[in-house]
Specification:
This protein is 54% helix and 8% strand. By secondary structure, the chain is an alpha+beta fold. A hairpin with a 2-residue loop joins β2 and β3. α8 runs parallel beside α10, α9 runs antiparallel to α10 and α23 runs antiparallel to α24. It starts with a helix and ends with a helix.
């Protein structure tokens, strides 16, 4: 009989604090520190946890097979398959088209724009992973705001929040739900009330959460969101590009005449980057490094204020006008489009130093500015390490923008002028998703099998190309799941979860069960703001189930409270990846999320807890 059941039978007896527990608590503490400080990438942290747990096997009980079991876990493979299926839907352009059609009637009415944003996001997020849904809709919603003379700031936080509440409609709406179902099934041996969840097991409560959240976002939330980005904002003005971009002319007899752009860039120094070459009225955006320069060419360069004066001393070029003159660059000149690129969750750019020349070579775009955590980075872009949510202002040719929109490294904050989608595959992709959901809902096969079958079907029918499988997967999420799953097992097997549950029962034993349930919701929501939602679920579900048993409550109710709270992180940009995706394009500050999200979190905590009590009892 497990420590959980023993706790339920003898709630007044304090479990003995063992060395095993202390060691596991130490590993949990290490995990929390690494998640909060982000000293290591999230996938590296996950691998480190596996290594530490196995090395400390005498105390953690995690042998090598158990340590790597997270990679073969049903939840991990299911999430992987669902990400690929979401990628297949993205290739068809279905989500973007849905967003455009829902927004077509909005016009310049903010309330209609909010309604369209929520309605286009929440239902879709119930069946597709909400992370790629937001990534796909950021440019659509930004364009809706610009066409309706509305600040994008008013719509982008609602986009993120609507995707989070929409993810609670079904089992497959978010990876957190799938992981919670797997943990619940594993704990079923100790708690008869717990089991793996069916496809629509909590849809009735999810629908109520969606409706309440939507009403708040449409009628209340937008009043609390400042207009951080002006309507139809001029990107160049917003990023103060004029202060850092100047024109220089290649004078007759210049030693760089006949040299390549790469040679010129090296000669200028690391602080100066050539972003355009203007020749006889024709402008080359993000010019190729092997392009030859001629006498009379105008080079548009991006540099720091201090380095501008250095240009006056370079032989063979001269400033056109003066450093305060308007540079030869425009927001959208038909040849080059200025837009923002958000560094995505699984981008190869995360942790890399920004080298404009290397960036131009790989992405075909010239870097003009950088925004981090809502603040502009004016001086010295070169050499800065990039992080998730960083927003780069770039200029790129239209064709390059199309290619960038199809990459997973960045999220393009405006729609490409000539998007290339497999629109003819929409009926097939939709039929496959319906089949996946139906097979799992009817319990013909588990969701793991139906999702994998759906992946095969998308490849066979041409919705996805075989080489696109790996690009569709957010590998840091997969590694995170693989790392935290054995951590959760160690917490259970060592008795640590039972010990923590005892402390909760002792401190909250005088409170009504409904209040204890609400406190678990709030606790999960707060923890999720500083660590990942999946890690919150792994660490708190065993504790919540044991605490419920300790006070004679329904463990399933407590599991649902943790799951719903972990999937709705509204208080800051860090707790949920979709919040990071809108951070830069919305020009938000950290406090904006709390201002809008705290009332919503409080309202949904009450609605969710009362709904759980009504549908499943406490």
């Amino acid at each position: 009989m497990s420590a959980f059941v023993a706790l339920a039978q003898e709630p007044v007896t304090r479990p003995e604090l063992t060395t095993d527990m202390l060691v596991v608590f130490g590993v949990v503490g290490l995990a929390l520190v690494l998640f909060v400080t982000e000293r290591l990438p999230i996938d590296v942290t996950a691998i480190l946890l596996i290594v530490v747990l196995v090395v400390l096997e005498p105390w953690t009980g995690i042998d090598p097979s158990t340590g790597i079991s997270g990679f073969a876990n049903d939840a991990t493979i299911t999430v992987l398959a669902m990400l690929i299926l979401s990628g297949g839907i993205a290739r068809t352009g279905l989500v973007q088209e849905l967003g455009r059609r829902m927004a077509s009637f909005a016009g310049d009415s903010l309330r209609k724009q909010l309604f369209a944003t929520v309605l286009a996001t929440s239902p879709v997020s119930g069946f597709l992973n909400n992370t790629p849904v937001v990534a796909l809709l950021v440019p659509v919603v930004t364009d809706v705001a610009n066409r309706g003379n509305t600040s994008p700031s008013k719509l982008l936080i609602p986009l993120s929040y609507a995707s989070q509440v929409g993810g609670m409609l079904t089992l497959i709406g978010t990876s957190t739900n799938i992981l919670a179902s797997d943990i619940s099934a594993r704990l079923g041996d100790d708690y008869p009330e717990l089991h793996g969840f069916s496809m629509f097991e909590f849809t009735q409560l999810g629908a109520i959460v969606v409706v309440v959240g939507a009403l708040y976002l449409i009628f209340v939330g937008h009043y609390l969101i400042p207009e951080r980005v002006p309507p139809r904002a001029d990107y160049l003005e917003e990023y103060d590009v004029g202060d850092y971009v100047v024109d220089v002319a290649v004078v007759p007899g210049s030693p760089i005449a006949g040299a390549t752009v790469d040679d010129a860039t090296e000669g200028f120094g690391p602080e100066i980057d050539v972003v355009q070459v203007v020749r006889e009225g024709t402008r080359s955006i993000a010019p190729r490094r092997d392009s030859r320069l001629r006498e009379g060419d105008i080079l548009v360069v991006r540099t720091d204020r201090d380095a501008i004066t250095m240009l006056e001393d370079i032989v063979g070029v001269e400033l056109v006008g003066n450093p305060q003159s308007t540079p030869e660059i425009s927001d959208d000149d038909g040849e080059g489009i200025v837009t923002e690129l958000v560094v995505s969750l699984d981008s190869r750019l995360v942790g890399e130093r920004l080298e404009p020349e290397s960036f131009r070579r790989e992405f075909g775009a010239a870097v003009l500015g950088l925004r981090r955590h809502g603040s502009l980075v004016g001086e010295r872009l070169v050499g800065r390490r990039l992080d998730v949510g960083d927003t780069l202002l770039v200029q790129a040719p239209p064709d390059t923008l199309d290619r960038l929109a199809r990459r997973n490294d960045v999220i393009v904050a405006r729609e490409p002028p000539r998007p290339e989608y497999r629109a003819d595959k929409v009926p097939i992709a939709v039929a496959i998703m319906i089949g996946v959901v139906a097979v799992a809902a009817l319990e013909i096969y588990p969701i793991l099998i139906s999702a994998l079958a759906g992946v095969v079907a998308m490849i066979v029918t041409g919705v996805l190309e075989p080489n696109e499988l790996y690009d569709a997967v957010e590998w840091d999420i997969i590694f995170l799941l693989a790392g935290v799953i054995p951590l959760g097992i160690a917490l259970e097997q060592s008795g640590g979860a039972a010990y923590l549950a005892f402390l909760v029962v002792q401190s909250a034993g005088f409170m009504p069960t409904l209040v204890v349930l609400w406190l678990f919701y709030i606790l999960t929501g707060l923890i999720t703001e500083v660590i990942s939602n999946n890690a919150s679920v792994v660490l708190l579900i065993p504790v919540a189930a044991a605490a419920a048993a300790g006070i004679g409550a329904n463990p399933l109710a407590f599991v649902f409270a943790v799951m719903f709270a972990a999937s709705t992180a509204f208080l800051g940009p860090i707790g949920y990846q979709t919040n990071l995706f809108v951070y830069g394009p919305g020009g938000y500050r950290f406090s904006d999320y709390f201002r809008v999200g705290a009332p919503l979190q409080l309202i949904l905590s009450v609605v969710t807890v009362l709904g759980i009590a009504f549908f499943w009892g406490v």
